[in-house]
Each structure stands twice: as structure tokens, then as C-alpha cells.
Amino acid sequence: MVAIRPADVEATLSRIDPLRPVLLLFGPDSGLVRERARAYLTRAQQGSDDPFGLIRLDGDEISGDPGRLVDEAGTVALFGGRRVISLRAGSRNLVPAVEALLAAPVSDAVVVIEAGDLKRGAGLRALCEASPRASAIVCYADTDRDLSRLIDTMTAEAAIPIERDARGELMALLGGDRMASRGEIAKLLLYAAGEPRITCEHVRAIVGDASSLALDEIADSAFAGQPAEMSVAFGKATHEGMRADIILGSVCRAAQALHQMRVQVEQGASPDRAVESARPAVHFRRKPLIEKALRSWTLPRLQNALLILDDALLAARRHAGLGPAIAERALLQLATQARRG
């Protein structure tokens, strides 16, 4: 098995392994998938002067012509050097194409595949994890430790220290998507340029809208019965490049957490006590919306909401082009139900 352990991810991505020409990046954090893919592709291209050395392929097109991936990987680069291929998975089955690639005697090529949140045992994930010629890395949403490291790295590069309280407030505002978090920190650094240090006032002034970029904002506004706010948050998320199925998956997890808290409420706990006891802890900015949702949604209604989300998630994956419309319609349906409730 070549599923990379979390502790080995950075070491794996820091070098190009000629014995494992295929790298699969997948998981719930689409921003981290993109960031790691870009960095690895850049590393794979180092030392090459070929302006056409990077080939970008669409997964849905490749699925209709499985042999094309082998042909592209086996083609000799025009100016010599390594052949580098970026492949983004879509809604169609990529397994035959990748299976043929792993079986082919292709040398001096690197293929980076970007995919969504693949379940354990899913065809593409299982294939790459089982092959000695591939590496599979799952990209989870950033933990507090990951966000802390990202803040430290970016502030150090900009040579602007950040106060301890400001750092804590910034971490609370950043969400579960790496690219969105990086964008917000970059915006803060630009705003604070020339200042001796970053303070809480800087964070509040420029990153006050960061939570709307987080996936939690979409779920919270939907279940609190705020369709207008949900649509704004959804639009920002899709503009940042978040895929519809990733958004729906996050809302599903929020609905499950809400279901657990509602169980406590029906056992006699107050909504605010249920929110306080939630693990992981709920950020203070989210508490009013979640408490409002707990007063509106009963257990049967939450179970029905999960069915709506599951159906929408399946449809968004089957029809990637219609994914945003499918997701927004389902989320608006939930927000409307919450408002009526």
C-alpha cells in the first residue's frame, strides 16, 4: 500500500520519486489539493526550459479515451526533459485510464491527479493506494496546528510580526479551505504593510469577512433560515474555486453535528448548553446562528435535510457542470424550510 501517512506528506512532496510517477491528491480541502498540486508540478518542471512542458488534461475527456493518458505520458518532450502532466478528475470514471498508465512502461514522466473527497475503497483512490508506481495523499481541512504554521510562515516571509491576541483572532476567522485562508492572510499582510506589527485592529478591519469564505458560513446561514446570506456566502465560496460537492459535503457534516446537538436539546439541555458542549468547540461568532437553528430543526426534519443533501451531493458529482446550481438549489431549500420552521 502506498497511501502516504500524514507525518510523511511533506517529505513525499519535497522530492520527485521516479519510481512513483503518479501522484493522486484528494480530500475535503480542495484548496489544499490545488496548492499541493501546483507546488509539486512546479518542482517537477525545475530544470526544464520547455515552454510546453506542462500538459493540462481534463478528466472527463480522458475517461472517453483512456489510451490518451498513456500516449501523453509516453510522448518525448519537444525540448527534452521530463514530461509533466496535470490531470483534474471530473464526474466520469478515470480508473481505466489511470490503470493503463500504471501498467505502461512510461519513463521520465510525472502525472499529478487532482480529485475530490474520495471515500476509502473508491476506485481511483484504491487503485493508486495499491500501486507501487503511485502515491496517494489525502488533503484534510486545516487543523489549528496547520493554520498556525501557515500564519507563521507567511508573516515571517513578509517580515511583519503578529501579536499573540491578533494571531488567535485571525485563526478563529480562517476556514477549512487552504487557498481561502492563504488569500485572507495575504490580504492582511498587504493591509498591514509598513506597520511594526499586526494587531487585533488590523485583523478586524480587513479579515472581518473571512468567515464568509469558510464553508461553515454557508451551513450556518442555511440552517438558521437566512437564504440571502447563504447565497452570498455560497457565491464567494464558488468564486474561490470550491467545488459544489465539497461544499455539500461540508454542509452534510454540519447537519450531522447539528443533529447531535439537537439530541441533547431533546434530552433536556438548552440550545446554548448544547452548543457549549460541542466538540470541536464552536467559534463564538457562529453560536447565535447555531442556537437559532437548534430551536427550528427537530430530529425528523434534520434527518430529512440530510436526505436532501445526500441526493444533491450525488447529483452534483454525476453532473459536475450543473453542480453549483444543484448545490445552491438544495441549500436554498433548507434555508427556506428553516425560515418557515
TrEMBL record:
Family note: Belongs to the DNA polymerase HolA subunit family.
Signal peptide: none
Keyword Transferase attributed: yes
SUPFAM superfamilies membership: P-loop containing nucleoside triphosphate hydrolases (SSF52540), post-AAA+ oligomerization domain-like (SSF48019)
Key words, A-Z: DNA replication, DNA-directed DNA polymerase, Nucleotidyltransferase, Transferase
Species of provenance: Ancylobacter radicis
Annotated GO MF terms: DNA-directed DNA polymerase activity
Record's protein name: DNA-directed DNA polymerase
Reaction it catalyzes: DNA(n) + a 2'-deoxyribonucleoside 5'-triphosphate = DNA(n+1) + diphosphate
EC number: 2.7.7.7
Alphabetical list of PANTHER family matching this protein: DNA POLYMERASE III SUBUNIT DELTA
